[in-house]
Amino acid sequence: MLTAYDRIVLQKPIPLSKQIENLASAYYAEYKVIGGNVGKKRIINDCRILACASLKGCQIIASDDSHMRESSKLVAARDRINARKGIGLPRIITYSRLKNIIGLSSA
Q: Are 86 and 54 in contact (CB under 8 A)?
């Protein structure tokens, strides 16, 4: 899996920029407006990941983090903000789904 991972992602970490942080904060603010009830400390990293992927033009985010995948309010907040800003919407999938997509599934 790591070899495939190295082939499909950047070879270096993406630094947390002001632009990513601002977009993540916008997601969180919209999340609260539409009734999200998870505290900022608990969900802001998910917001940052969504913001980073959106700004970098990623088509998918592979995550087994249930907050990110299952929080319809967080995804709705991301969708609303990105639509207003004309930013694409990366799809959120599980790691097992990613393995199937890139042909690493044992099944």
A: no
Kind plus residue range of the DSSP H or E element containing 72: helix 72-85
- Burial zone of 8 (CB within 10 Å; 0-12 exposed, 13-18 middle, 19+ buried): exposed
Burial of 27 (0-12, 13-18, 19+ CB in 10 A): buried
pLDDT value at 2 more than 50? no
Q: Quote the pTM value.
A: 0.79
Residue 46's nearest CA partner among 76, 19, 66 is 66
The neighbouring-strand residues paired with 60 are 91
